[in-house]
Design the sequence.
């Protein structure tokens, strides 16, 4: 099945090749396969797949990656607008145990 | 900080270490674990579903055994210990206030500071001889591997996304394949999230239905039976909207048109609204009030469905903050407008004596 993509051309991810040391940390942490290796460094191959989780930025030791990290959650934002503090996220880390 | 209690349901005995007694977690998923998971799925008492933070042993843990880091949401912890059946190791549970790894990492509670503090408070350096931690990849938004190394000497190795891949990851010499690194949003996972959406939406529906009934009661000149007749189509519309936006849209996500969730929800809602109208014989309108009432359903169902579908963005695993902001700017006013118009039409139909 084709991977699910959200809106195109909106994410804030940016990559500065000159700072990249090719340590490959971003390749290990990105859950959306946004990067791929290229000539001892990396390149951004599917920008629209980025979900702005911020894992790459936080784990890049040389500051070559930047992104405004956050959670893409409408109900969380609505709650915030209404001044309520409520957890929005109910996604599990893995497929959930079945109910039997 | 006190070590994890020994009387938690999943603890089977303990192991003596240089820093004292460490509880041993069972790798078997018991009936009560299953029941608990089921309750959580339906939103019953979800907030208290935690395990004590700290260090646990698995199997015959030794000083050279690997250390797995996880969150103190019991569902997450259960998945890990079950996946580690047959493995000798340690589990370091961070205090994420009962939130799973991914969400806690986004909030920062599953993060560098908590990890560093937990390594120190559990005196991990005195328990194990190596300096490696296996941290779930989905914790990476909160954890900075190089910072953890600077502050504690421990090397963070990001493990696979799915706990089920852990044994393959261990066998492969702590190397994850590309497949293990990508988060999908498969059918089963979407399906499992539906109940919680529905429970939340139904709570609102009951409230809204009560208010609508009161309004209908006044409009109909204080007649309970007329008020019921007026309220039923509105409740039907709400129910169909929940079915469209809260259940069918998440389940059929990849196959619905558009990329924005609200677009997908709108399409599903429109489809079901047309079904409702056809079923009610809207093709042959006999009465102006019935027509207006039908119009109210036609306008409100897609709007509510779009709104509910948009609320699902947070549960999915492929939306971005920037994307949701963009979607909301356009879809939220439209959805609210549609619901408002639906309400006005419904009141008009009621006043016309539908
Ligand atoms: S922010 Fe997350 S999804 Fe986007 S590129 Fe970085 S790691 Fe990948
Ligand atoms: S983590 Fe940073 S330095 Fe390392 S490969 Fe990625 S961009 Fe380059």
Sequence:
């Amino acid at each position: 099945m084709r991977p699910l993509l959200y809106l195109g051309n909106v994410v804030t991810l940016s990559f500065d090749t000159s700072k990249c040391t090719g340590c490959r940390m971003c390749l290990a942490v990105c859950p959306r396969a946004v990067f791929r290796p290229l000539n001892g460094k990396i390149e951004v191959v599917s920008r629209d797949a980025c979900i702005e989780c911020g894992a790459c930025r936080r784990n890049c030791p040389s500051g070559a990656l930047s992104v405004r990290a956050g959670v893409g959650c409408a109900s969380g934002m609505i709650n915030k607008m209404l001044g309520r503090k409520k957890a929005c996220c109910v996604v599990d880390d893995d497929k959930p145990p079945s109910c039997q | 900080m006190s070590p994890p209690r020994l009387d938690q349901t999943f603890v089977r005995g303990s192991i003596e270490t240089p820093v004292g007694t460490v509880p041993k977690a069972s790798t078997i998923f018991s009936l009560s674990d299953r029941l608990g998971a089921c309750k959580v799925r339906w939103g019953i008492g979800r907030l208290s579903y935690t395990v004590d933070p700290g260090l646990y042993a698995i199997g015959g843990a030794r000083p050279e055994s690997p250390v797995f880091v996880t969150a103190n949401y019991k569902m997450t912890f259960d998945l890990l210990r079950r996946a580690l059946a047959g493995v000798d190791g340690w589990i370091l549970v961070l205090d994420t206030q009962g939130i799973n790894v991914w969400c806690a990492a986004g909030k920062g509670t599953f993060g560098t500071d908590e990890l560093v503090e937990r390594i120190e408070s559990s005196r991990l350096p005195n328990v194990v001889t190596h300096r490696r931690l296996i941290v779930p990849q989905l914790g990476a938004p909160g954890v900075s591997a190089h910072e953890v190394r600077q502050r504690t000497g421990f090397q963070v190795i990001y493990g696979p996304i799915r706990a089920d891949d852990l044994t393959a990851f261990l066998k492969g010499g702590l190397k994850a394949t590309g497949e293990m690194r990508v988060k999908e949003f498969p059918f089963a996972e979407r399906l499992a999230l539906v109940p919680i959406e529905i429970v939340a939406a139904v709570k609102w529906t009951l409230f809204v239905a009560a208010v609508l009934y009161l309004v209908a009661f006044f409009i109909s000149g204080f007649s309970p039976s007329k008020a019921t007749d007026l309220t039923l189509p509105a409740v039907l519309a709400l129910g169909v909207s929940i079915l469209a936006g809260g259940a069918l849209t998440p389940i059929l996500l990849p196959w619905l048109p558009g990329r924005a969730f609200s677009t997908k929800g709108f399409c599903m809602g429109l489809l079901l609204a047309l079904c409702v109208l056809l079923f009610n014989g809207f093709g042959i309108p006999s009465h102006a009030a019935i027509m207006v009432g039908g119009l109210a359903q036609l306008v409100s169902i897609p709007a509510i469905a779009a709104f509910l579908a948009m609320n699902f963005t947070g549960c999915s695993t492929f939306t971005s903050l920037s994307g949701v902001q963009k979607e909301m700017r356009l879809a939220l006013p439209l959805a609210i407008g549609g619901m408002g118009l639906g309400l006005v039409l419904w009141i008009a139909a009621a006043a016309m004596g539908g």
Summary: Residues A 13, 29-30, 32, 34, 50-56, 67 surround iron/sulfur cluster (ligand 1) (CB under 6 Å).
